[in-house]
Every structure is written in C-alpha cells, then in structure tokens.
Amino acid sequence: MSAAPKPIILWAVPRSRSTAFLRVMLERGDLEVLHEPFSYLQMDGRFEIAGRHVTSTTELLDAMLALNDGGRRVFAKDTSDYKYTSLLEDERLFGGVVNTFMIREPRSAIASHYAMNPKATLDEYGFEYLHAIFEAVRANTGEVPLVIDGDDLVAAPEATVRAYCEHVGLEFMPEALRWDPDKRPNWQRTARWHAEVAASSGLAAKPSRTPERRETPDTNEHLRRIAEYHQPFYDALARHRLVSR
C-alpha cells in the first residue's frame, strides 16, 4: 500500500486573498481543511483539531499528520503575521508536509491590512517572515517551493488553481471555483477579515464601484516606509512565482 499523500500547508502574507483560495479547497469536499491553525494556536495557546485540543506546534503537527493518515488529505492555510519558531525547528515540517506560499503586491496588501488593523506592527505585514519560512523550506528540502500570487489568482483563477493542484498532487475540480455565499462558523472570531470572501460566490477581482477611501503607501508616509521595507522580500519570493499558461 502506498503512503498517504502529504498534508499541504499554504503559507501566505495577510490580505493576499489566501482565504479565497482556502474557500476553493473547502468547496472541493475531499479535503480536511484547516483555517489558520498555527495562528489560532499562537493567539489562544490552544487549537481544536478533530476533537483533540492541542497546546503546542508539536502536538498540532502530530494531529495534522494523524488526521491526514486517516484517509482524507489535510489542507491548511496560515499567515505570516505571527512567528512559529518551534515549528521551524521540527524536521517533520520539511519532510512530512508539502509547503506552498502565497504573495501579493505589497502596496495593495499593506493598504488592505492597514485598513483592517491600523495598529499592525512592521512584522505583522508578514513579507519578511514569509520569506524566512520559504528559505527554511528550501534549505531543508533542497527544492524551491511553489509560490502563487493573489492577483494572479483572481486574474486567471482556473489556470492558477489547476497549476497549484498539479503541483501538490490534487485532482483539479473546476466546479470548486464557484460557491454559494456563506459565513463559515470557524471564521466567526475574525469575521470582518473574511467578509468579502463570505459574501462572494467565486474567484474574481472586486467589481468596479465608487472607490472606498483608503490610506495607501502613496498617501501615508508610515505605509510608504512599511512597503519599502517589505518590497525586497516580496521581490525575492516573486522571482519564483508560478506563471500559469
């Protein structure tokens, strides 16, 4: 009997459209989908997975691997606004998991993040730490991980999702690109961060409308400095970005 396919983790900068991608994975119906398990563990000191309460990254990774071996492949999406030091010291993250990455042009992602949390620290915008996770995976596996871009996802959803599925060993299901708008119960605590996805019915850029007033790196010196700081980390990741055909 062949070994079960490895769990998949999508590591993403905040506001990169990663929740929309997770919604596609939910719609498939053949995966155990986990929404930001390591972030919730970091915030709360605990996380519930398959009826089990875990209190450390070691226990959480144990539970993910066990759940994956139970017959349904695990897909987890998480963000790089927290540090996962002990996780990056666990060799199973590199040998037992398929790590993938999601970026978005920093000026747009940072403006969107600031609109949600104007008190965010420099680190919480996440590009530097996402790059650190990427480099840890590359150093420990000897392979360049897959990187997708949130803007590509909405510009060419079918091609981007198809290529991602091919890379991680999933069947591509075009019907998963559409869904009925709904609010997922496990998003309740952070519902305002996911309001657009909850109201959506598929992968698409926001429709044209009167632009909302939003501070950007062009209008806000604080955001300009943040964008300039994180740009090199984005550029380094973008050099490996998937270009779908």
- Output the CATH class name: Alpha Beta
Taken together, the total number of domains comes to: 1
Mean pLDDT: 89
Bin the helical content: 40-55%
What would you note in describing this structure?
This is Sulfotransferase family protein. It comes from Actinomadura namibiensis. With 245 residues, the chain is of the alpha/beta class. It has one domain (8-238): Rossmann fold. It is 44% helix and 13% strand. It has 11 helices and 7 strands. A 5-stranded parallel β-sheet has the order 2-5-1-6-7, sandwiched between helices. The chain has a two-stranded antiparallel sheet with strand order 3-4. β3 (47-49) and β4 (52-54) form a beta hairpin. α6 crosses α11 and α7 packs parallel to α11. It starts with 7 loop residues before the first strand and ends in a 7-residue tail after the last helix. The model is unreliable at 191-195 and 207-211 (pLDDT under 50).
Keywords:
7 strands; alpha/beta; 5-stranded parallel β-sheet; 13% strand; Rossmann fold; 245 residues; 11 helices
Short account of what is shown:
This protein has 245 residues and is α/β, with parallel strands linked by helices. The chain has eleven helices and seven strands.
Blueprint (SSEs and pairs):
Elements: E1 8-12, H1 18-28, E2 31-35, H2 37-44, E3 47-49, E4 52-54, H3 57-69, E5 73-79, H4 85-88, H5 92-95, E6 98-103, H6 106-116, H7 127-141, E7 146-149, H8 150-155, H9 157-168, H10 195-199, H11 221-238
Helix pairs in contact: 6-11, 7-11
